[in-house]
Records
---
Amino acid sequence: MEQRVSFITLAVADVARSRAFYVDGLGWRPIFEADEVLMLPVAERLILSLWSVEGFTAEIGEPPATGVAPLTLAHNLATEAEVDAVLAEAAALGAAVVPAQHRDWGGYSGYFADPDGFRWEIAMNPGDTGAFVLPPAD
């Protein structure tokens, strides 16, 4: 199997509510929309798929777990000021935010939860790893 990810699919309680947060609030542009799914291109050849719990359950054969998901989605930025700005934007949309702080590993990061509680890490990650995930400078 080739080392890559094509889709990240999250089961959401209300696709319209997720659309209001990601598209209307954060300004993301969908590549596909239907009643039970919203697909958002998030990187070159990577789609974040927000799928209704019902559609998700029908497809995989069992309902998703509840509670805090044991994963985070990360959005890296070049500066601490950019991290703070994105966390402020999420807070303005009503997201629960954990303020950014300097981390032992040398970076600066904070978190917000989307309407279904999925945690987004907003980070400035120094070094080669941080450079790898950032888009090329204009």
---
Amino acid sequence: MEIAGADQDLIDWSATRREQIDVALEGITDRYVAKHGRLPGERGRHRLGWWAA
């Protein structure tokens, strides 16, 4: 999806940042599971997402 008038460099930067956050979130979630033996709940996933960002 594109926003009219948005610079392509900004769009590319945003997409790259999202990919980096996804990779970081995966690693943080793996460490959480190793420590707690379960996946985080909804609130935990939200907090891990903030950490990843």
